[in-house]
Amino acid sequence: MPLTHRIRSRPAPLRGAAPALLLLALPGCEPRTTASDFARAGGSFPDGWPFPPGAPPVTARGGIVATTDEYATRVGLDILAAGGNAVDAAIATGLALAVVNPEAGNLGGGGFMMVRLGDGSVHALDHREKAPLAATRDMYLDGEGDLTDKSVLGHLAAGVPGTVAGLWEAHRRFGTMDWAALVEPAIRLAGGFEVTTRLVSTLEAARDRILLFPAGARIFLPGGEVPAIGDTFVQPDLAAVLERLRDQGPDDFYRGETAGLIAAEMARGGGIITLEDLDRYEAVWRTPVAFGYRGHTAYSMPPPSSGGVTMAMIAGMLERRDLAALGWNTPETIHLMAESFRRAYADRNEYLADPDFVDLPVEELTSGAYAAVRAATISPDRATPSGEVRPGLGEFLDESHTTHYAVVDAAGNAVAVTTSLNLWYGNKVVVDGAGFFLNNTMDDFSAKPGTPNQFGLVQGEWNAVAPGKRMLSAMSPTIVEDADGALFLVTGTPGGATIITTVLQTIMNVVDHGMNVVQAVHAPRVHHQHLPDRILFEYGGLPKAAARALEAMGHTVEQRDPGPPDAYFTGGMSGDVQLIMVMPDGSLEGWSDPRRGGMALGFRE
């Protein structure tokens, strides 16, 4: 059960000016929801669903940190207690996750950060990986033009890492504590922490592929075996990298000893990341995507994340229907959600990419007029086959393993961060002498446009591989304001292609269906991504009668594979939501998804 701790000091305010926001398709103001009791309103989860709606949320006034790992959550909370603000806590938390959550927390990957200051300004930081300069459009095709596994496994799968640059840039602009103090907790954890169920489970799942590469096998699978729960896990190479990061900042990672280790690993394994690639990497501040939903305003990442734009498209279609009256997860509601999902993903996969390489039609895709056009094609009682749902702008215009964490401090500063190696343990390659895994996010490009990637997404030419280009992502760290412009929700999740639909369903659970943070996180989820043409639902998350009703409408309905009984983090579940809500009296409620065993902790004043 999550714990609540007493606050010892108030976080410091953030510093920095706000950029202009891209505010799109906002409706008129409506009263803010107060998340009334879902069960009292007649709602219930399916019989046998393992996550109950009645657990009490974590409550606090002095700040909450919600992550997928207890060690990392406690690190973030300690930073708040020491006087740091939400960005300070997020930086320290991210570095701790790189130690205790190596399958997704990372130094060798990248991600996105949303920051909302206490003054209401919102900022979006892109530290997504980039294709190396030697990358070519067809580098993952064989002589017959067919896809190989080189975009998923091994050295060629890695993009230039952005995490270190992103955390440093966030600190430069908004941090208040000394950088060294934020790195030090991760160094201590690298000196040894108790092996958790999470670490054992993910290592067992990835064991065979990690064993293909000696450096990772030596550290994470000593003697070829997964460490036992309760063992002390020590990472001296990673500790040395973190010590250099503490003392030298990102210069070591991108231009110093660690950069040399990365380049040497690439040369040894036939990869193409060079010292020049590392030296040229920069994190980028971008204009957030803002979209309205029933009087609330949600802020999320713009391209090269597809999260904000795709959620805006879905919300624009669904806002035209009274989902609250239709009921939570009724066949009628799921039908409308799936139809909106499939249309938005068709557009996502065709039109979104790195905005530094392609002129993207973001304003058109997120406009109310376009939402009306797309929504008008949705039948209230019949599914539209995905083969008949094409990207829609041609008729309208005249001419993306991952982890998420959330932090809110007592001063009202909020941070949502989603960071990733893509698959668990990325490309399965550990940088010899540095102790961290590299990503396999190059697979998030359209390695062969029109062919599914590892998440089944069929993407277009605009997202093809090109040197220096950032690959399209589904990561969607999101911050929601109420109708008065006050901070309301901070959320996000991992989950590959399901990230977008999971985050939006979490928001809809609160706004449309009056759930509290526990219920909104625990509720079963559904997903549709245009192709493959199916509604996917969590194992045990949809009653048989509802599935039959959806099939009668013409949908293909598929339950997620439950997996083996010991598949602690996969067994038929979807996502790992971290959610914080500001209540009408200014107090905070938070919850961490039990699907992967995370923890939210907070301070009382």
Please supply descriptive tags for the structure shown above.
single chain, 605 residues, alpha+beta, 21 strands, globular, disordered N terminus
Kindly describe this structure:
The protein is an alpha+beta fold and 605 residues long. The protein has 19 helices and 21 strands. The chain has helices at residues 70-81, 86-100, 163-174, 179-190, 197-210, 214-220, 236-248, 250-255, 257-269, 275-280, 307-318, 323-326, 331-351, 362-365, 368-375, 393-396, 499-511, 517-522, 544-552, and strands at 4-6, 22-24, 58-60, 63-67, 110-116, 122-127, 193-194, 232-233, 284-286, 289-293, 296-300, 402-409, 414-420, 478-481, 487-492, 526-527, 535-537, 557-559, 578-582, 588-592, 599-604. Strands 1-21-4-12-13-5-6-9 form an 8-stranded mixed beta sheet, covered by helices on one side. An 8-stranded mixed beta sheet has the order 2-10-11-14-15-19-20-3. It has a 3-stranded mixed beta sheet with strand order 16-17-18, covered by helices on one side. It is globular, with a radius of gyration of 22 Å. The relative contact order is 0.20.
